[in-house]
Specification:
The complex is a heterodimer of chains A (115) and B (110).
Chain A: E1 5-7, E2 10-13, E3 19-24, E4 31-38, E5 42-50, E6 53-57, E7 64-68, E8 74-78, E9 87-94, E10 105-106, E11 110-114
Parallel strand pairs in A: 2-11
Antiparallel strand pairs in A: 1-3, 3-8, 4-5, 4-9, 5-6, 7-8, 9-10, 9-11
Chain B: E1 3-5, E2 9-13, E3 18-25, E4 31-37, E5 44-49, E6 53-57, E7 60-65, E8 70-75, E9 84-91, E10 98-100, E11 104-109
Parallel strand pairs in B: 2-11
Antiparallel strand pairs in B: 1-3, 3-8, 4-5, 4-9, 6-7, 7-8, 9-10, 9-11
Classes of the chains: A mainly beta (115), B mainly beta (110).
């Protein structure tokens, strides 16, 4: 069974631009969660999608948005990029909602650098 | 709200035993998970405790005390490849989110 895939793996953007990241979950998994990871901050929860609906949202500004498609693939978008958005963005999938699953499967992440 | 605390760094020598603690504050609680992340890699699931007590998986064990809002990950017979960051995560609760701690960087020295 293929693991969670994320594209692109690396991305360099300029302040003010926008970016779209993609995540393909493990086949059959319906939940996709997104996390931002920065040094010293651990994994900060962004949002979770389940069956094309946003089920949970973290404490991030509205510049961060996402969506999920009928095949469970998910995208997250960050508009008006700021230097502080430079981070590793991880997605994780599970069959059930993350809060009902004790294990999530993570993708390799997208390393975003904002200059 | 929910918060988790773990030490930022731990150093140990090959072959030794190390314990990484995690204390949590959460409104509602279902269980505690542990994840390992090597530098530049994806977090991978290690263990889960839904009930009080010790769960053992090979060289790794995890413990939970719900009354103390405390858990730990125990790594035995340390190997160089165990050098990584270890995250505890609170599962469930009123927000139904999986919230991660800030991680403990384990350095295993020869």
């Amino acid at each position: 069974k293929a693991g969670v895939t994320q594209t692109p793996r690396y991305l360099i953007k300029t302040r003010g631009q926008q970016v779209t990241l993609s995540c393909s979950p493990i086949s059959g998994h319906r939940s996709v969660s997104w996390y931002q990871q920065t040094p010293g901050q651990g994994l900060q929860f962004l949002f979770e999608y389940f069956s094309e609906t946003q089920r949970n949202k973290g404490n991030f500004p509205g510049r961060f948005s996402g969506r999920q498609f009928s095949n469970s693939r998910s995208e997250m978008n960050v508009s008006t990029l700021e230097l502080g958005d430079s981070a590793l963005y991880l997605c994780a999938s599970s069959f059930q909602l993350a809060g009902d699953s004790y294990e999530q499967y993570f993708g390799p992440g997208t390393r975003l650098t904002v200059t | 709200g929910q918060s988790l605390e773990q030490p930022s760094e731990v150093t140990a020598v090959e072959g030794a035993i190390v314990q990484i603690n995690c204390t949590y504050q959460t409104s509602g609680f279902y269980g505690l998970s542990w994840y390992q992340q090597h530098d530049g890699g994806a977090p991978t699931f290690l263990s889960y405790n839904g009930l009080d007590g010790l769960e053992e998986t090979g060289r790794f064990s995890s413990f939970l005390s719900r009354s103390d809002s405390y858990g730990y990950l125990l790594l035995q017979e340390l190997q160089m490849k165990d050098s990584a960051s270890y995250f505890c995560a609170v599962y469930g609760g009123a927000t139904n989110k999986l919230i991660f701690g800030t991680g403990t960087l384990l350095a295993v020295q020869p």
